[in-house]
Amino acid sequence: MEPKTPNDVIEQQLTKVMRRSNAIHVSTASGEVALERSSYGILCLLADEGPQRLGAIASAFHLDPSTVTRQAQAVVRLGLAAKKTDPGDRRATLLSLSDFGERSIKEARDFRRQALDLLLAEWSPADVAEFGRLLSLFNETIDHWDNGAVPAEITNHHLAAPAPDGEPEV
């Protein structure tokens, strides 16, 4: 079936991107660890924002805290992160990157950037910049919606439900 509108094209292409991204497990250059999608998202958050409470991670990814607890246990078990007491509130726990986690996320991000360099090698620099600009705008719009600006006709629709696997999208 041929797309009828620009939104039809966007929907079809986003479906392809999601399907392909779900099939990819991120490997580090050294091959020490293959990062699952949920681990990659958490490690990126910790690398970008520093140590986080599990509740803050759950909020950032719009996940149930129990889901984040399981994912946090997995990255701790792999030695990618460590739990420590929050100095601001000794009752709370912070999740932070371990040295191994820092190396692993750096390697994984470098690997992804190299893959993007290859994928986009035939694009003009202007097209790459425009793609980045539009993708950023798209994500900013999603963030705006995540902060409560979603029209009621969308939130009441079944498509607004979180992904069944409960993993953050990366």
Rounded to the nearest angstrom, the radius of gyration is 18 Å
CATH class assignment: Mainly Alpha
Structural class: alpha+beta
Strand count, sense and closure of the main sheet?
A: 3 strands, antiparallel
Topology:
Elements: H1 6-22, E1 26-27, E2 34-35, H2 37-49, E3 52-53, H3 54-61, H4 65-77, E4 81-86, E5 89-97, H5 99-119, H6 125-149, H7 152-155
Antiparallel strand pairs: 1-2, 3-5, 4-5
Helix pairs in contact: 2-4, 2-5, 3-4
Question: Would you write up a description of this structure?
Answer:
The protein is an alpha+beta fold. The protein has a single domain, classed as Arc Repressor Mutant, subunit A, CATH 1.10.10. The chain contains 7 helices and 5 strands; from the N terminus they run H-E-E-H-E-H-H-E-E-H-H-H. The protein has helices at 6-22, 37-49, 54-61, 65-77, 99-119, 125-149, 152-155, and strands spanning 26-27, 34-35, 52-53, 81-86, 89-97. The strands form 2 sheets. It has a 3-stranded antiparallel sheet. The chain has a two-stranded antiparallel ribbon with strand order 1-2. Strand 4 and strand 5 (89-97) form a beta hairpin. Helix 2 (37-49) crosses helix 5 and helix 3 (54-61) crosses helix 4 (65-77). It is globular. The two termini are 29 Å apart. The mean pLDDT is 83.
